[in-house]
Every structure is written in structure tokens, then in C-alpha cells.
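Curious: why these numbers?
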Amino acid sequence: MFADRAEIYIRSGKGGDGHVSFRREMFVAAGGPNGGDGGRGGDVIFEVDTGMNTLAEYRYVHKYCAEDGENGGKNNCTGKDGKDIVLKVPEGTVIRDAATGKVIADMSHGNKRELVLRGGRGGKGNQHYATATMQVPMYAQPGQNYLELNVLLELKVIADVGLVGFPNVGKSTFLSRVSNAKPKIANYHFTTLNPNLGVVDLKNGAGGFVIADIPGLIEGASEGVGLGHEFLRHIERTKVLIHVVDAAGTEGRDPVEDIRAINKELFAYNDSLSQKPQVIAANKLDVLYGEEKDIAMELLKTELEPEGMKIFPISAATGEGIDELLFYVQDMLKNIDEEPIVFAKEFFPESMETSTEPYFVEYDEEEKVYVVEGPRIEKMLGYTNIDSEKGFEFFQKFLKTNGILDELEALGIQDGDTVRMYGLQFDYYK
């Protein structure tokens, strides 16, 4: 089965932790800090591979993780960076957050490479935290945590023109005649599973366009019946639709009712699809003769041309009428001043990043106070006005969400005990 949709788990690499160590040299009683930094975690990158046309490889392997960064070492040794993981996808793949459906990246129209999850930053070693008042820092920065997501990959075929119609109306035969595509053709009573792409080169150097045979639709497709959603998403990027019908009714079908049924499915899936310009390719007229052909064409024109649909009698089997149809479609494309359909980014994975600046919580036996300090605390106090009501509410929430209150309670703090943070002192009450 053609695979144009897959859900996978992706995870960037965790940053390596910074190291806590001190110089130990002969005749040096108290060497300074020399803990090295952790390495950067690997990124998760998506890249277009022009040789791919399905998402088949993601149907069986669902978990992809970049490499973690190594921890820092003593003697100022920096940990090794984690390796990135590069996931290859066909052009036209849209990457969505599986939980919300929001677009993370659209791998089309020049976007060949997208960094989706950034690896965690390596933590700073304790050498970075030595100050005039803190010459023996006993803490280092932990590596930034990895980011993880379940993402939905959807392939939306990129073509100027889409062929739509019920199964077995001659779309594959039409495509094989007008382009370089070689779809399988047979008298099947079920639909092709592959959206086939072909390049149409018009005669006399008049140019050309890309055409896609969208697998045959059935009633109920917009509700997911059969493979409806998998097929309909391929029409979204096209500019013009060639609607192929069995004008001869060789299987007892009514061509007008077929056209209305397909357009109803397009509207139900996405009303913008039904607004796309359509040309009707009235196929299989080679099996009708004389008055039968005239009656069939008159019926289609009477019903559909008032709705702005141009009718072209053709035979995909013999080639009759096809050149006229293709030149008309080429003129339509020239007059459609439309930007390529690119799905805008709606979800930003970097917003999931959290602070990894270190802090420590300890009890000072001499002064009988609990001490909470470190770069994370210092930064928070720097941008928080704790004299205001809202600022103090934020301050309390910060202590709770960062686990600082839990650590104080683990050390045995009681109501009325004093907590010190960089010269500020507070009385603790639960």
C-alpha cells in the first residue's frame, strides 16, 4: 500500500552535564575549579530527498532519537557533542504536532532542510561560577534536557494539475498518454493506490506542467471512507483540476451525477478545493458513434457549462481531443496568479525549552538559616519585583514549580525558619 501518512516519535539529544572538580597539584593547597562543560545534544533534522516519493520507511520504525552530549570532565575537558539525526522525507511532506495538528514545517517550495528539535545545550562546568565571594563553587550547570514530540508526517503531492474522478474512468490511461508517467493500467473496479506524477510537455515547445493522477475517489471519502483523507490531501496544492468522467456510461454510471458526487466530497473535505478551476474531460467517447456521442456531450454541456466548467470530449485510448484540452489547461495556469500553497508554521518546538541554570539548597549550621543560591535564583531575582503583589506571586510560583520548596522541606524546614537568597531573607510558612 502507498504510504503517505505516518506518525513517529522524535527526540533530540540531552546536553551533557557540567563537571565539578578542582585543581589538585603539588604545593597548591586549594586549587581553583576546573570542571569542564558538557557537550551539546544532537538535533533532529528533516531533509528533503528527491529520490523518495512515499513515507513507507516510517510505517515500521516509529522512534528516532538524536545522540546525547557527553558530560564534562576534570581539567577543563569539554564533553563530546551528540550526533544529529537527519530524517529523509519526500518533497511535499508536512510535519505536524500529533497532539494539536499544528504545522511544524512544510518541506516544499525551497524548504529542503528544517531543524525541528534542537539538542540540549551542554551544562557549564563549575569553573564558570567562581567569583570573588564564591571561590569554591560546588555546583555546575546540568545539561539542558532533550525535547521530544510525537509528529504526524503527511505527504501532499506537489503538482500544477490534479486528475480527479471515480475509479475506472480512464485517469491512468490519460496520464500515460499525456506525460512521461507509467502508471499500471487495467480494468480494475477499485482504485489505484499511488498518486502518479507526470510531466506534460506540450507540442511545438509551448511549455508544460506537472500533473498528478489522484487515486480514484469514492462517495464518503471526505468522511474517511476507504482511503478518502489519504487521497484528498494530495489535491490541496494543485491549481487546476481535470475532472475525468466516463461520458459513455460504459458501466451504467451517470457522468453528471459522478461529477456532482466528487465535487460534494471535495467541498466536504475542504471547501477551498471545490473552488479550484475545473475542466471536464469527457472520456471514452471512442465507444460512442454518431447521434449517441452528440447526445452525451449535449447533456454534459447543458448541465455543467452554466456552472463555469468547460467540457472537452476526449478519448484517452486513441488520443482524440487531448491536445486541445492540454493547451486550454496551459492557458488557465498562465492566468492564475497564485502563490504556491505552503502551510504556515503554527507550532514552535523551541517554546518547550526550560531553564537549566543551576542552584543549590543547603542549611547553614552557623547562622541557622536555609540558603538558596545559584545562577538560576540570581537571574530570577534580577527580573522579578518581589515588592509588588504580582511579582511576589510569581516568586512563590517559581519556588514551587522548580522544586525548591520540596528541597527545603526535605532538609527539615519548619514554619518560622529563615531562608536567605542573595542578601534577602524570608520567613518560611507553609
Residues 183-192, 224-228 have pLDDT under 50 and may be disordered. The first helix runs from residue 171 to 178. The first strand starts at residue 5 and ends at 11.
